[in-house]
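Tokens help. Our protein:
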Amino acid sequence: MSGLAARDDASAAHALSDPSPAGGAARHAVVLDGISKSFPVRRTWGEMARQPTLRPRAPVLQNVSLAVAEGEFFGLLGPNGAGKTTLFKMLATLVLPDSGTATVGGYDVVGEASKVRSVLAPVIADERSLYWRLTASQNLELFAKLQGMRGAAIGKRVTEVLAIVGLSDTKEKIVAAFSSGMKQRLLIARALVAQPRVLLLDEPTRSLDPISARGFRTFLRDEISGRQGCTVLLATHSADEVLELCTRVAVLDHGRLLATGTTTSLARDLGEERYALYTRDANHPALAALVQRGIVGALAVRGDEDGWSRVEMELAGGMERASQVVAMLGEQGVVIARFERVPLPLADLIDRIVRRSAEGSSNA
């Protein structure tokens, strides 16, 4: 078994006792303990005629255990078909687990589904779920009534949530005239009407342009997670969302939990810490000597700007080792303008975790 796979097993074993990103005691907002789910495999008429009693099933979640602390911004990563959507549906009480338990705010998703729905709200990032011919206020008033609210409480809560998402000035504007970013905010407002403690976000910025997406991420971080104190579970493929928002992430593949932690710690566990050196001496023998001695990995020169070259290298050992490399190069007379860690691209991080897990399984 690989080192990463071993750490994953240990993380799963201790997830329930220590979910906090800092390793300290924390209350749990969401706890999954050995959750598994499979669905029937669709078969052709010919296959059913030949084997009428066969009932094949495809696993979608396989023994997933993790815990999310209250107030945490937690990311779910993985390729399409990894099980993220099924996991969200299970937390929202729309899908029942085959085995294992899941709790939200201390309530079991099977035995206490109504209480779970009172503390959790999924945010459907589909603008078509809004009533475009109604105003923002009318959309929220309708939803509030569906949530069981009555009388003056409706108007008060609608006013509050519109202020939270920054749409107070456009509350009488029909939704059809809203920009995509405004519609996303209205979807958040709709979820906040019932005052949930946990929000489920599924790729909330996928329909936004880069500038609108950046503003929306700021809104999620500062207002929803910061001032409102909501626990947020985010399923995403966006590196910007992960880096700007998530305290920790979990990587899923084919329904299996492969790793949890910060993106930095996961990259370090993979031995894939990469650094960039900006120097005028890209061909200095001291750099080649570091490679020969096995202190750094292969060097890659990435362009030249005004006489300064960017030299990338793999380097294990974290910041302490990096400082030693800088000191050694300085002693050898290498001119250094900047030395910095290069974050591993999110797609590469996920791909390498998946490949490492597959290699560990084949060697087990």
